[in-house]
Each structure stands twice: as structure tokens, then as C-alpha cells.
Design goal:
Blueprint lengths: L12 E5 L9 E4 L2 E5 L11 H31 L13 H15 L6 H4 L1 H9 L5 H4 L20
Parallel strand pairs: 1-3
Antiparallel strand pairs: 2-3
Helix pairs in contact: 1-4
């Protein structure tokens, strides 16, 4: 009988505060920083293994987007003679893409499920209960693209 190996939390920085994320949300990931609302500190019922797996999936997504955007930015700087200062914008690209996807979902019905229908949230929700998912999901597979269709993967 073999034990399944699950990955540990990959968050080097966890910040509890009352401003980030917005009220009504439990947590938010920005690359490798996990922001958690202060009122949930010590809440083991909500801050459990499933929660950390969900947020770790977001880290994988953001890392894929961030590294891809760095590569594209370098190529654009070289090919189009752009200023290298544009490289400082690359950490914002994952968050910007997340917001753009959210705005698109707000435009499309059902409006109340806009946040839950974002492909990034859908991938995390559908796989947060699978302890083996992070062992199988490798970087640069862009698995979130599979969840763009709302009809195939309805919001949970």
C-alpha cells in the first residue's frame, strides 16, 4: 500500500489584513503572496487543506501567465525596440487578465455567477477536493484554458 504524496503549501508569505481582499472575499493570491482577511485568522474550518490547494492552483495559473508575459515582453522589447521599462508591468499581467476575464463574465449572463464562472476560479473549484491534482498539474500546461466554456463546467 503506497501513501499518496501531496504537495505542501507553497506560500512563503501569508498576510492577514482588513483591506486585501475586498470585504466579502476570504483570500486573494498575488503571485506568491497569500492575502487573507484578518477576521479569518485561525479559522481552521475555512483555512483547511482544500482552501490552500485552491489558492495553490491560482499560484500555478499566475506563474504560467507571469512567466509567459515576461517572455512576450522581452521579445516585444527586442523586436519592436520598446523600452525595457515595460518589464516592470509584467507582475501586474496575471491580475489584469483575471479582471478582464471577470468583466467579460459580468457582460455575459448569468450575471450573479460572473466571478464563479471565470476560468481561473472554475479550475480551482473543480479541483480543490482532489489531493492528487497538484501532483499531476505541471506548470505551462495552461489547464485553466479548458475551463473557459461556462456550459461544460458550470459554476459550483
Amino acid at each position: 500500500m503506497s501513501k499518496s504524496k501531496t504537495k505542501k503549501s507553497i506560500f512563503p508569505i501569508v498576510i492577514y489584513n482588513k483591506l486585501i481582499p475586498f470585504d466579502g472575499f476570504l483570500a486573494m493570491v498575488t503571485l506568491f503572496i497569500l492575502w487573507i482577511r484578518r477576521e479569518h485568522k485561525g479559522d481552521t474550518r475555512r483555512l483547511n487543506e482544500r482552501f490552500f490547494r485552491h489558492e495553490t492552483i491560482h499560484v500555478y495559473q499566475q506563474t504560467e501567465i507571469w512567466i509567459t508575459s515576461i517572455i512576450i515582453s522581452i521579445l516585444c522589447c527586442i523586436l519592436f525596440n520598446l523600452s525595457w521599462w515595460w518589464m516592470f508591468a509584467t507582475p501586474l499581467i496575471p491580475l489584469l487578465l483575471y479582471v478582464i476575464c471577470w468583466i467579460i463574465e459580468i457582460i455575459l449572463p448569468p450575471y450573479k455567477l460572473a466571478y464563479k464562472n471565470i476560468c481561473f476560479e472554475t479550475e480551482a473549484k473543480y479541483n480543490e477536493n482532489n489531493p492528487e491534482y497538484l501532483n499531476k498539474r505541471k506548470l505551462f500546461q495552461f489547464k485553466f484554458l479548458k475551463y473557459i466554456s461556462n456550459k461544460k463546467y458550470p459554476a459550483k
